[in-house]
Design goal:
0% of the residues are buried. Strand 1, helix 1 and strand 2 form a beta-alpha-beta unit. This protein has 45 residues and is α+β, with helices and mostly antiparallel strands. The chain contains one helix and two strands, in the order E-H-E. It is flat. It has one domain. A two-stranded parallel ribbon has the order 1-2.
Length: 45
C-alpha cells in the first residue's frame, strides 16, 4: 500500500479472532462499496 489511494479509510479493531464471523458481513459491505479497510485483532489481555 504505497499510494495514497490504497490506504485504508476505515480501521476495524476486534478483541478476538472469534469476532471474525460476526464482522464478516461488515467486510462484505465495505468490499461491495469499494471502501478500503484494515482489520486488526488486538487483545486487551
Amino acid at each position: 500500500m504505497s499510494t495514497r489511494q490504497n490506504k485504508p479509510l476505515i480501521g476495524i479493531i476486534m478483541g478476538s479472532d472469534s469476532d471474525l464471523p460476526i464482522m464478516e458481513k461488515a467486510f462484505e459491505v465495505l468490499r461491495e462499496l469499494n471502501v478500503n479497510f484494515e482489520v486488526k485483532i488486538l487483545s486487551a489481555h
